[in-house]
Amino acid sequence: MGKSIPQRHSLRYNLRMSIFNGAFTMLGAGIVGSYVPLYLLDGLHASDQELALLNSLPALIGVIAMFVGAFWVSRLHKLKPFAAATTLITRLSYILVAIAPVFGMATAPLVVVAAIAIGNFPQSLSGLAWQSLMAKLVPARFRAEFFGQRNRVITAVGLGGTIVAGAALQMFPAHARRPYQVVFLIAVVMGLLEVWYLWRYHEPKPDTGPKMGPFVWRDLWNRRSYRLFVLASAFFNLGWQLNWPLFNIFQIRQAHATGLWIGLFVIVSQGGQILTYRWWGTASKRRGNLTMLALGSVGIGVLPILAIVSRSLWHLVLVNFIGGLAVAGVNLLLFNQLLATVPKDRKPPYIAGYNICLGLIGFVAPELGVLLLKMLHMDMAMIVSAVWCILAGGIFLTIEDVRRKVRLSFWKKTRPQ
Known about the structure:
Blueprint lengths: L3 H40 L4 H25 L7 H13 L1 H5 L9 H30 L2 H31 L7 H22 L16 H4 L4 H18 L2 H11 L4 H29 L1 H20 L4 H29 L5 H68 L3
Helix pairs in contact: 1-6, 1-7, 2-5, 2-14, 3-5, 3-7, 5-14, 6-11, 6-13, 9-13, 9-14, 10-14, 11-12, 11-13, 12-13, 12-14
C-alpha cells in the first residue's frame, strides 16, 4: 500500500509533464511544419519537385533511422536521456532552415529540404524512444482517454501559436524571407523548452535484464494482429500521403492562399481536432480502434473531392476544418492500435518495424502524388487519393470484422459445455 501512492503521484506528474512537453512540440515543430511549404514556394521560389522532396526525402531518412533505432533503442536501459538528446538535435536543425538564403537563392530550397531531411534522422529516433517511453509510463487502461485529452490541449496551444505566426507573416509582403526566418528561430527556442519538459519526466528504474537481439526481425510478421495492422496502415498512408504535396500546391499555387490564409487553414484544422479528440477516444472504446479508423479513413478520402469542387478560399477553410475532424481520429487511433498490437516485452523493435514501413510509404507517396499531377492533372490526382483512402477504410473494417469472428470462435470453443 505504501508503494502505490508514490506510483500514482509519479503517474500524475508524468502525464502533466507530457502535456507541457507536447505543447512546446506543437508550438515549435507545428509552426515549422505549417509554414515551411509557404516559405519554399513564396519566399524561395521552389519547384513542385522540390516541394515533393520536402515530404519524401525526410521519410527516406526516417527509414534509415528506424533500422538503426530498432536495435539501438531496444538496448537502452533508460529512454528519457536518449529521447531528449535526439529531440534537441532535431530542433537545432531549424537554424539551418532559417539561414538557408545565405547559401544563395539557387540552392536555398535544397538546403531547407536537406535540413528538414537530416533533422528527421534524430527526430525518428526521438519518436521511437518517446513512443516506447509512453508505453512504459502510461498504463494501457489510461491511454485512450489521456492521449485524447493531451492531443486536445496541445493542439489548442499550437492553434494559438499558429494564429500569432500567421498574423505576423501577413504584415509583410508574400515573398519576404526575413519574417519566416525569425519565426523559425523562435521555433528553436520553443524546441529548447520542449526538451526541458521532456527531461523532467520521471522514468522508472531501468530494467537491467538482457535486451533484444537482432533475431526480432524474423519474428515481426509472426504476430498476426500486428502484421495485418501494418499492411492496412501502409495502404492507407500511401493514399493519404500522396496528396500532401498536392494540397500544398493546390492551396498556394491554384487557390493563391497567403500566409494569413494558410494560418487560418491550420487554425480551423486544429480547431476541428480539439473538438473531436475526446469523441474519437470514447467512440474507440465502444466500437474498437479499427472500426473508428475505417470512419476516419473515409473522412480523409472525402477531403480531396471537397477541395477540387471548392470555389473560394472560404470553402477551403471549411475543407480544412472537416479535415481536422478526420485527422484527429486517424492520428490518435493509429497510435493506440499500434500499441495494442505490439508485445509488451518487445515494444521498440515492433514500433520501429511499423515506422520503417510507413517511412518507405512516406518516401514513395509524395513522389507518386507529383507524378500523378503531371500525368492526370490536379483533379484526377486528387480523386485517385480519395478513392484510395476510402478503400483503406474498407480494409480496416474488414480486419476488425475478422478479428471479432476469430475472438467469438475462440470464446465458443473454450466455453464450458
